[in-house]
Write a structure and sequence with these properties.
mainly alpha, 3 domains, globular
Length: about 375
């Protein structure tokens, strides 16, 4: 006999705004978090591999890209942490009784997560400031620091995936309570969802490298290496290659993840009768288009339209997958969810919106100033021969 899961009662305090506002806020803030998270989670392995190739082959392009990545990743880490607060707050407001229960059940790992983030953050800064010195004195130590940071960040991702899987499977809570973490690791969704996330982060960072390469090839921006005008084109090819490294395994990981979902959730995705199902198949089609486009772009490097087609289709695919991810959570918890009471506080909502607009403007201004300063520094630097 299957016991009814012991679902805690939802918070009796009503939502301070309409439900669609909170649902939209969750999706919007999560998109920004994913952009920064992809840079960190996918950027650290790219940094270590690029640094290793640059050191052992002496190829200056790899060394230059590794230098850029080592400079950008600590900042991206800060953005990933800060931008993760918003979706976490919306998640607690909408699914608090499931979120808190899952974090309690994996309490040791959840507490260790904070320490792991701090050490990984420190490792990225150590890599940035000690890079030049360690490359001359102890390159293995430099790669070890990068590898340790990568391992910690991938461990953090595994904890979040484990919590997310446990939160949408209340029927497993009692087994986890009795048997501990062994029961968590045997949940069929954990491994495929984790691999799906890691591969997606590699593809996402590869896509950002393509954007970076395109930016350097635009008139007035050009390469940071004026002795190598083709450096921007090379970065584009590297980005395309890393995008394929992250996207091709999804051909296997994606179906594995799909078949690990609860039967009623999987049926809703593949029945072809709902908007969720139609958009799911649309995302699969666009993913195939991106694979074909990026493969063709590697074989015909000068066909920029192929790269643009791959970028566009993969970007839309990622956006759709974020929305589908939210729908999977809602479908998995549908039998336990009740529509929360809402008592809108429009004055607080207006204040929140105003502060958000101001902060977005400030971040945009800071980024503009950073790009302008970097461009001026490049123009004033001596040309490398």
């Amino acid at each position: 006999m299957q016991l009814t899961p012991p679902i805690p009662l939802p918070d009796p305090i009503p939502l301070p705004g309409p439900l669609p506002l909170f649902q939209g806020g969750l999706l919007m803030t999560f998109v920004f978090h994913v952009l920064a998270m992809n840079m960190v989670l996918g950027g650290t392995p790219i940094l270590v591999v690029t640094e290793g190739i640059g050191y052992w082959t002496g190829r200056s392009r790899y060394q230059c890209l590794a230098k850029t990545l080592s400079t950008v990743l600590p900042t991206a880490m800060a953005f990933a942490v800060v931008l993760g607060v918003g979706p976490l707050l919306f998640l607690q407001a909408l699914y608090g009784q499931f979120f808190y229960t899952a974090t309690i059940l994996i309490g040791d790992l959840w507490i260790a997560l904070v320490l792991a983030v701090m050490v990984a953050y420190a490792g990225l800064y150590a890599y940035k400031y000690w890079r030049d010195w360690l490359l001359l004195s102890s390159p293995w130590a430099l790669l070890a620091i990068g590898g340790a940071s990568m391992g910690l960040l991938w461990g953090v991702a595994f904890v979040f995936v484990t919590m997310s899987v446990l939160a949408i499977q209340p029927h497993a809570w009692q087994a986890v309570w009795r048997e501990g973490m062994d029961a968590v690791f045997t949940l069929p969704m954990v491994l495929p969802r984790y691999l799906h996330l890691v591969c997606a982060s590699l593809a996402g960072m590869g896509l950002l490298l393509v954007v970076y390469g395109f930016g350097m090839t635009r008139a007035g921006i050009r390469s940071t290496r004026r002795d190598d005008p083709a450096y921007g084109d090379w970065v584009i090819r590297q980005g395309v290659a890393w995008t394929l490294v992250g996207t091709l395994p999804q051909v296997v990981v994606g179906p594995w993840f799909l078949f690990s979902l609860p039967p009623h959730v999987r049926a809703a995705l593949v029945n072809g009768e709902s908007w969720v199902s139609l958009l799911f198949f649309a995302s699969l089609t666009l993913a195939l288009v991106s694979l074909v486009s990026f493969n063709a772009a590697l074989m015909v490097p000068r066909a920029r339209w192929l790269v643009l087609a791959g970028m566009g289709s993969l970007s839309v695919t990622m956006g759709l997958m974020i929305w589908i991810r939210d729908q999977v959570r809602h479908l998995a918890l549908a039998e336990y969810l009740e529509t929360p009471q809402a008592v809108p506080q429009w004055d607080m909502i207006g204040l929140f919106a105003g502060v958000a607009v101001v902060m977005v403007g400030l971040v945009g201004y800071c980024l503009h100033q950073w790009v302008t300063f970097s461009k001026m520094a490049t123009e004033k630097s001596p040309q490398i021969h």
